[in-house]
Amino acid sequence: MLLFLIVFLIYPFGVNVYNSFFKYKIVLDRNPIYIGLGNYQELILRRQFKGAIKNTFVLMFFVVLFQVGFALILALLVS
Prior knowledge:
The chain is of the alpha+beta class. 73% of the residues lie in helices and 13% in strands. The chain has one domain (13-78). Strand 1 and strand 2 form a beta hairpin. The chain is flat and about 65 Å long.
């Protein structure tokens, strides 16, 4: 179980975090350029990011609301 966790979760997560600090041009140049937190800075400064965060929280709110409400109704019907 621990081997599965390391191979399929921890290692890929670590590789992705490591790769996020580099800028890749796979087609033109296979040498990554270290840019530090530049990818994260670019993400946060994009206009679409704020809308995506807002949409995520709205969706999360309604999904939780309906799931809890539906589960409560089912629990009342069963008991």
